[in-house]
From TrEMBL:
<feature type="domain" description="Methyltransferase">
    <location>
        <begin position="43"/>
        <end position="183"/>
    </location>
</feature>
<dbReference type="GO" id="GO:0032259">
    <property type="term" value="P:methylation"/>
</dbReference>
<dbReference type="InterPro" id="IPR029063">
    <property type="entry name" value="SAM-dependent_MTases_sf"/>
</dbReference>
<dbReference type="GO" id="GO:0005737">
    <property type="term" value="C:cytoplasm"/>
</dbReference>
<keyword id="KW-0808">Transferase</keyword>
<dbReference type="InterPro" id="IPR025714">
    <property type="entry name" value="Methyltranfer_dom"/>
</dbReference>
<dbReference type="GO" id="GO:0008168">
    <property type="term" value="F:methyltransferase activity"/>
</dbReference>
<dbReference type="Pfam" id="PF13679">
    <property type="entry name" value="Methyltransf_32"/>
</dbReference>
<protein>
    <submittedName>
        <fullName>SAM-dependent methyltransferase</fullName>
    </submittedName>
</protein>
<keyword id="KW-0489">Methyltransferase</keyword>
Amino acid sequence: MTAKERGADAAVMQELRPGQSIELLQELHILTREGKLNQDSRRKLKQVYHLFNFIEPLLQDFSAEGRSPTLADHGAGKSYLGFILYDLYFKALGRGHIYGIETRAELVERSRLLAARLGFGRMSFLNLSVAESMDAAELPAQIDVITALHACDTATDDAIAFGLQKQARAMVLVPCCQAEMAACLRRDKALQLGRTPLAELWRHPLHTRELGSQVTNVLRCLYLEAKGYQVTVTELVGWEHSMKNELIIARYTGQKKRSAAERLVALLREFGLEQSMGPRFGLGTAQPEK
Ligand SMILES: C[S@@+](CC[C@H](N)C(=O)[O-])C[C@H]1O[C@@H](n2cnc3c(N)ncnc32)[C@H](O)[C@@H]1O
């Protein structure tokens, strides 16, 4: 069957992965009915394929010896990532399960309908926040891979907490905007400016926001290392495509890095964040700085 008959432009076919369902891409509005890619959907597809390159080898490892891999995608949105992972990997594997977790009910309903229409029977969509999904009876006690692609603000932190609770073997995170840390930095700015020259790093509002994101991601990585994950930080796609393109990949090794735990506390202290942000990173009983 030619590309045209399958509903995709021949040039566009070059950009798709072998075995990719054209129908799925059209249903997701990544491909137009004429089989074309517009600028936005090309960017989305490029992002998802790039992530697929990282996630596929993890799934292959976890599928070895007949195991059925499980994956939970947090802040799933329209579930581009989940659907494409299912189409390119889970469908042929014939086992395993993908769970999409999303707060917007209409997106969850749409994904349920689409999965049913395509016969993607091992996909479930839960209309829950990431935090609520921790206790969801529909989810198994252990989940192999956690993904969170541009899940808003603290949803990435909730996804990490979820991953720890579910003893995830890998977490693939692309953090989004981050407001919580910036708010904490802003609140104590005057105090910190008097205490440390470091506070110059967040004196100006634009710097407060950017530094807040940067420090949050650094602390997330240290936290994961302290919990026994090996962490890699790389780019999702080129800067021309997205301002939020930091990709954090964490693989469980069981080796809890004590130095990472110590650095995490030291950094929180250095930034005057021990009390406000400590609980996020497992420091429930943080003492105020002397
Ligand atoms: C920027 S979109 C990204 C969607 C998708 N991951 C993607 O990359 O195409 C963020 C999504 O996360 C959802 N979301 C935000 N906070 C959430 C939370 N705490 N729990 C679950 N979903 C959340 C939003 O409703 C939205 O659909």
